[in-house]
Amino acid sequence: MSQKAFLQAFDQAAIGSFMAAGMADAATYTAPAPGSASVPCDVLVDRGTQVWGDDASPVALGEISIAFQRAQVTPERGGIIVVDGDTYRLTDKLKDDGSLVRWLVVPHG
């Protein structure tokens, strides 16, 4: 078994367990091309805050990123994801290990 195949099997099992525990969500992804169909997928949503600066006035920015399983979808910049009643647009790819791909997203609509 290759490393990529191992990662895909591991991520599929892990996300399935996370979904059962309420730590991952079912979602629908729509590619940015006009007329694209929505595709069901399972995702991990990370709602976090980044802080820059160590002086008396640091800058804080809330950000949301979403991890997709490549075995389910191949997300693209500008794609739309609907998860847990929220709709987001994909802006920047943060990470891609061949199994999970994580995108920075912004609220859409």
What does this structure look like?
The chain is an alpha+beta fold. 17% of the residues lie in helices and 50% in strands. It contains one helix and six strands; from the N terminus they run αββββββ. Strands 1-2-3-6-5-4 form a six-stranded antiparallel beta barrel. It is globular, with a radius of gyration of 15 Å. The mean pLDDT is 92.
In short:
The protein is an alpha+beta fold and 109 residues long.
Radius of gyration: 15 Å
Number of helices: 1
Class from helix and strand fractions: alpha+beta
User: Into which percent range does the helicity of residues fall?
Assistant: 10-25%
Report, as a whole number of angstroms, the end-to-end distance.
43 Å
Overall pLDDT: 92
Instruction: Give the H and E element order.
Output: HEEEEEE
Summary tags:
109 residues; alpha+beta; six-stranded antiparallel barrel; 6 strands; 17% helix; globular
Describe the secondary structure blueprint for this structure:
Blueprint: H1 3-20, E1 25-30, E2 38-52, E3 59-69, E4 80-83, E5 86-96, E6 100-107
Antiparallel strand pairs: 1-2, 1-4, 2-3, 3-6, 4-5, 5-6
